[in-house]
Amino acid sequence: MTLYSRITGTGSYLPPRRVTNDDLARQLADRGIETSDQWIIERTGIRARHFAEPEVTSSDLALHACRHALEASGRSAQDVDLIIVATSTPDMVFPSSAAILQHKLGIAGCPAFDVQAVCSGFVYALTVADAMIRTGGAKCALVVGAEVFSRILDFNDRTTCVLFGDGAGAVVLEASDTPGILASDLHADGSHVGILCVPGNVSGGQVLGTPLLRMDGQAVFKLAVRVLEDAARATLAKAGKVDADIDWLIPHQANIRIMQGTAKKLKLPLDKLIVTVDEHGNTSAASIPLALDAAVRGGKVKKGDTLMLEGVGGGFTWGAVLLNL
Ligand code: UT7
Asked: For residue 277, is pLDDT > 90?
């Protein structure tokens, strides 16, 4: 009997249009809004982000990422028997972007659904896929984070529009006799809905409320630092591991200061922290699988390494997954 699930391939995709801080500062200046490359780098660590063209959807980005992940795992789309897409920027109200992605992959029949946990979406999706594999519900899953966050940014709000970007990352998660996913720890606290949300909704043929991102950055920052340490410690305890067992920390890429703060609390040297926020910005549910794939393809993260993945975001949601690659 199969007891475990394991990542057998990673993939990612960024839309070609790279927008630097200076590009964005010029764009905002046209609206009479002041920002600078220096402010953005100092406060966030972000240097550039990628924006998708208007006709490109999350499932389009996901398709590229999945093809790369399937190729890396030596699998074909026909081998896939479960698709989970973590996204807060789905193609449509319904059906799920996962179902649309399934069709674009040229397959049909297997379960496909979206997970909505904002920036924690990928660790939620990975945990669900792991549980389904371990209970015999699937053998070869595509677990994806895909976002076109540029669609929900308010380019009149300099406190948020400089932070986010578009992209997708994916892993192939397969049934295994040896442990891959070791433990996970997921949480949500809906009392914090107001500090990070897109409050609009579709009603009677109209969008009611604001369909643009609203964030109290400082409130999110303070909560994030605390819960990320708690989630990492809880996950390590469940797996019977300690800080020193972590080879690589791959946190949600929102702000370099939050990421470095978490690494310090876990007593990890900063060279064990995977950083892509500088080039990707915050891509919400896509940020962790994008960072993972960059680290694998860049030769840093190798088969057999122990990775701590951590997400935090709107909901408020947070969680962590510890795994052997
Ligand atoms: O993905 C979900 C998780 N999200 C996060 O983790 C985000 C968490 N929060 C953060 O990363 C940070 O709070 C921010 C990057 C959003 C903001 O950094 P901060 O150090 O908390 O800055 P602040 O909000 O205290 O703003 C400092 C100053 C303010 O001016 P005053 O009031 O001191 O005069 C802002 O108005 O910076 C100003 N400011 C800007 N200036 C230039 C805010 N945004 C900008 C900007 N350019 N884009």
From this structure: yes
Nearest to 179 by CA among 30, 322, 13: 322
- Any ligand 1 atom below 6 A from CB of 220: yes
Q: For the chain, give the mean pLDDT.
A: 97
Of all protein residues, whose CA lies closest to atom 38 belonging to ligand 1? Answer: 159
How far apart (Å, rounded) are the C-alpha atoms in residues 85 and 64?
13
For 187-226, how does the pLDDT look when each residue is reduced to its tens digit (9 = 90+)?
A: 999 999 999 999 999 999 999 999 999 999 999 999 999 9
Tell whether 172 and 185 lie within a shared domain: no
User: Do residue 172 and residue 187 come from a single domain?
Assistant: no
Does the annotation count 252 as an active-site position?
A: yes
Q: How far is the CA of 161 from the centre of ligand 1 (A)?
A: 11
Closest CA to ligand 1's atom 4: 254
The predicted-structure confidence for 301-318, as pLDDT tens digits, reads as follows 999 999 999 999 999 999
- pLDDT value at residue 1: 59
Contact between 112 and 99 (Cβ < 8 Å):
yes
Residue 61: Cβ-neighbour burial (10 angstroms; 0-12, 13-18, 19+): buried
- 255 assigned to active site: no
Domain identity same for 259 and 155: no
Q: Is the Cβ atom of 221 under 6 angstroms away from ligand 1? A: yes
Are 90 and 215 members of one domain?
A: no
Mean pLDDT, residues 289-307 taken together = 98
Domain of 237 in residue numbering reads as 181-324
Annotated catalytic residue within 50, 68, 252, 280: 252
Cα–Cα distance, 229 to 254 (Å, whole number): 15
Tell me how many domains the chain contains. 2
CB of 218 closer than 6 angstroms to any ligand 1 atom:
yes
Q: Are residues 145 and 52 in the same domain?
A: yes
Q: For residue 2, is pLDDT > 80? A: no
Co-location of 271 and 209 in the same domain: yes
Are 241 and 320 in a shared domain?
yes
Identify whether residues 160 and 206 lie together within a single domain.
Answer: no
- 158 in ligand 1 pocket by Cβ < 6 Å? yes
Q: Are 277 and 256 in contact (CB under 8 A)?
A: yes
Q: Which three-class secondary structure state does DSSP give residue 105?
A: coil
Atom of ligand 1 nearest to the CA of 314: 2
CATH number of the domain encompassing residue 244: 3.40.47.10
